[in-house]
Amino acid sequence: MRGLPVTLAARDVILGVEGVSLAFGGVRALTDVSFSVRRGSITAVIGPNGAGKTSLFNTISGFYRPRSGNVVFDGRSLAGTAPPERARLGLARTFQNIALFRGMTVLDNIKLGRHAHMRTGLLDALVYRGRARREELELRAEIEERIIDFLEIQHIRNAPVATLPYGLRKRVELARALAMRPRLLMLDEPVAGMNREETEDMARFILDVKEEWDVTILMVEHDMGMVMDISDHVVVLNFGQVIAEGSPAAVQVDPAVVAAYLGAGDLGRRLSGPEAA
Amino acid sequence: MRIGTLKTDYAADEALFDTRLQKLLILLACAAAVLFPFVASPYWLFLACLCAINVASATGLNILTGYTGLVSLGQAAFMSVGAYTVAVLEIHAGTPFLLNLLVGGLLTALVGIGVGIPSLRVKGLYLAIATIAASVVLHFVFAHWPLTGGMQGLSMPPARLFGLALDQPFQLYWLILPVTALMVLGAANLFRTRVGRAFIAIRDRDISAEVLGIPLLRYKLMSFAVSSFYAGLAGGLWAYFFRVVTPESFPLVNSIFYLAAIIVGGMGTILGGILGAVFMTMVPELLKFVAGLVTPFYPDALALLAPVRTIVFGALIVGFLIFEPHGLAEIWRRIRRFFHLWPFRT
Amino acid sequence: MTDWLFLTEVFLAGLGSGALYAVTGVAFVLIYKATRVVNLAIGEILMLGGYAFFGAAAGWHLPAWVALPVAILAGALVGAVVERGLIRPMLGESPISVFMVTIGLGSILAGFVQIVWGADPLRLPEFLPSAPIFIGEAYVAPKVAYGFLAAMVVVTAFVLGLRFSRGGVALKATAADQAAAYSVGIDVPRVFSLSWIVACGVAAGAGVLVGAIGGISPTMGVFGLSVLVVVIVGGLDSMAGALVGGLFIGVVEAFAGTFLGGEYRFLVTFSILILILMVRPYGLFGTHEIERL
Ligand SMILES: Nc1ncnc2c1ncn2[C@@H]1O[C@H](COP(=O)(O)OP(=O)(O)OP(=O)(O)O)[C@@H](O)[C@H]1O
Ligand SMILES: [Mg+2]
């Protein structure tokens, strides 16, 4: 059963996923997935392990090319748009397995997020005069004032990321995504593996980001408490298909969703291997 | 122990040398470099020039391999492109040496881009092997092309500055060292900007780098271009230094030499490229010196020099990779930290 | 007029040297499959085999049938020591670091044989029957023919052995997924050791054959470069690829050497390598791994 189709005015939609299907060899990771993300909302994608949530994110990022279907960002079709270009358009994200650059400091990791919006070319860089220098200093100031203070990571700015504990790494990843000048911020399991307190911090950051930065948030999350607390809209995936969508309250009692999560007790574990064990 | 380095001024924090000690050390090094030729013997000047050339090339390789994570076994072959270009221009066109060097560097950069093209499809080891293949092809071209003089190679006139021939180590020192210094400075600058960060991101996790806004092929090729530009310049300096360029001047083992230099020095640090290149250039001299010492007791010592050098090179690569993967630069850092903390803690 | 007889002879000679590429390639693939190490020192280990044979046969005056096992054992011993001393400490490091360790190893071995046996090329004592061999009318140098036979026997034994023995299953499991292999009770470290021991032994044996045909010298390690081309063409993790690639490259080199001149050999093989990297980067038979974010 599908949730009621939600009709939104076109200008309210920042991201449209239209009939996306994706397969790896015989594994059908996504089958005809369609949904819309409303501008200014927090939309959550949930589903049992292996449901295809990360694959969906990767498709939106342009890392996977769907077998059929299309992604529309802000009224513009992204078909044939390479991942770096999508990043420049304002699609920023974090990764389920934390993809920070181990050989760089926290500050450099965050700076890297701005890459697509900077102009410094090779020659500028070699001489580090004029534009290169100006751009770097502006970036540094902005990161310090808007991101580092905001996420409360002043004390680790010069630390190599490899030395950071897990919770802080997630926060640095969020910082890097913010440096990307996001218009749609995609968070893949932002609180996975965090304790209660860290989870609450992160939920607060997400809400603040939405308010202060004026970005739309699309997140994948297993922590139902958090999903129910902060999201405006929930899309449920199971075996690569959308089985329901709607408000958190409506989705929670949807029989198809309940069935999917009950089944996940044993099925989900078998599907997703060691992670769930 | 230094306390209270609170920084509110970002420009100061973003500077290349941000502590007073560092600035002092650099100043001392510059002064020493200027005074050196006036006190050193020709032998030491010769070595200094050789070290500088190797520093230039190793720094280039470090950009590609140490910072971008693209292993190349073609650095020596790239140098040969620069060396031949300079030699041909010097012989046939007689253009000013700085122009020749620049053309040599640019031409090598083009070749480097060509070699780098497979780097989007193939990774790591495959790419290293592609660079070996490129070395073989380049060697063949230089050995068979009439313009490059076949197996005989080319002998070229010295660089000239205002009618003065630069043909002694003393004069060449003033050509080679400044060029190398500028190249090292350029490399250091590179990694203060988005270009350098993109390189490191590609090394650390190239697939997520793409999603974060870095066009992979473009930056991989850029890294190849810079690195081979450096190799081309270094090769050009080499040509002016030795003035004979043959196909055997830049064998595959030289590429391994540069790889060893950045491993021993420390991959992915500017200081590492410098320390490693100097160290590896001095090792054979040290061996020669030792061989000279033991010759009275063991007359064959000199004959063993070549194989012992081969073994020492190999052992340095293996030893550093296993026991000190961050190289001499890391040892240097530890020493510095020790003195910063001293005498409060050990 | 095409001289078919001559072409056939060139072809057979190419197959002969190709077979030696194939065995060495198989040894290379064995190490790669088990440990994911690209062993650039394989040429030097092969060289060491040639020298060990020389040392045993010419130095200690042992008969060839004793000297050959001595050479193979020497290779195996080096393999064991290298795996324990150099490769295992690098476990978990980037594949590129391990690759560079093998470059260093090659350098050490090359220097070592030069110190012990000198820099000049040497000839191995004759030990293969020297009666001329004809296939149809085509003449094949007897050493080349015996080399081919021996190489083919080893390659066949390998392919069959891996398909049907328990060791083969363990290897396959380790190659597919180390952690999973561990969890089903396969002694992964032993698979590592054994693969290095066997592969280096085989490479050393191949070195004896190569040395018997062309003599030995401290630069013999460049044979490893051709082997590298072979395994890239065939696919790093494919035994069948090593066999096909080896024979193919052998024949190509023979024709290039005959019709273009010896100096074209490397040019032609490495051009093929570049071509393969462009159109089929994972070789003819290699597996292409999909990356995940
Ligand atoms: N690169 C890939 N190659 C092959 N199969 C893949 C790949 N990526 C994902 N899959 C498969 O696609 C399916 C969906 O995986 P995905 O990672 O999208 O699930 P998920 O919903 O994010 O799960 P989790 O909650 O565990 O993160 C799984 O069966 C997975 O094994
Ligand atoms: Mg996932």
TrEMBL record, chain A:
SMART domains the record matches: AAA
PROSITE patterns according to UniProt: ABC_TRANSPORTER_2 (PS50893)
ATP-binding among keywords: yes
Domain ABC transporter as annotated: residue spans: 15-264
Pfam families (UniProt xref): ABC_tran, BCA_ABC_TP_C
Keyword terms: ATP-binding, Nucleotide-binding, Transport
GO MF annotation, one: ATP binding
PANTHER family hit by this protein: ABC TRANSPORTER ATP-BINDING PROTEIN (PTHR45772:SF1), CONSERVED COMPONENT OF ABC TRANSPORTER FOR NATURAL AMINO ACIDS-RELATED (PTHR45772)
UniProt protein name: Branched-chain amino acid transport system ATP-binding protein
Automatic annotation (TrEMBL), chain B:
GO MF annotation list: branched-chain amino acid transmembrane transporter activity
Protein name stated in the entry: Branched-chain amino acid transport system permease protein
One Pfam assignment: BPD_transp_2
InterPro entries cross-referenced by the UniProt entry: ABC_transp_permease, LivM-like
Organism: Chelatococcus caeni
CDD domains (alphabetical): TM_PBP1_LivM_like
Keyword Cell membrane: yes
Record GO cellular component, one term: plasma membrane
Keyword Ribonucleoprotein: no
Membrane topology (UniProt): Multi-pass membrane protein
Annotated transmembrane regions: 21-38, 71-91, 97-117, 124-147, 172-191, 221-241, 256-279, 286-305, 311-329
Compartments (UniProt record): Cell membrane
Keywords: Cell membrane, Membrane, Transmembrane, Transmembrane helix
Automatic annotation (TrEMBL), chain C:
Family annotation (CDD domains): TM_PBP1_LivH_like
InterPro entries reported for this sequence: ABC_transp_permease (IPR001851), BCAA_transport_permease (IPR052157)
Main location: membrane
Bilayer-spanning residue ranges: 6-30, 37-58, 64-82, 94-117, 144-162, 194-216, 222-252, 264-283
GO cellular component, one term: plasma membrane
Keyword Cytoplasm on entry: no
Database matches in Pfam families: BPD_transp_2 (PF02653)
Protein's membrane topology: Multi-pass membrane protein
Name the UniProt record assigns to this protein: Branched-chain amino acid transport system permease protein
Gene source species: Chelatococcus caeni
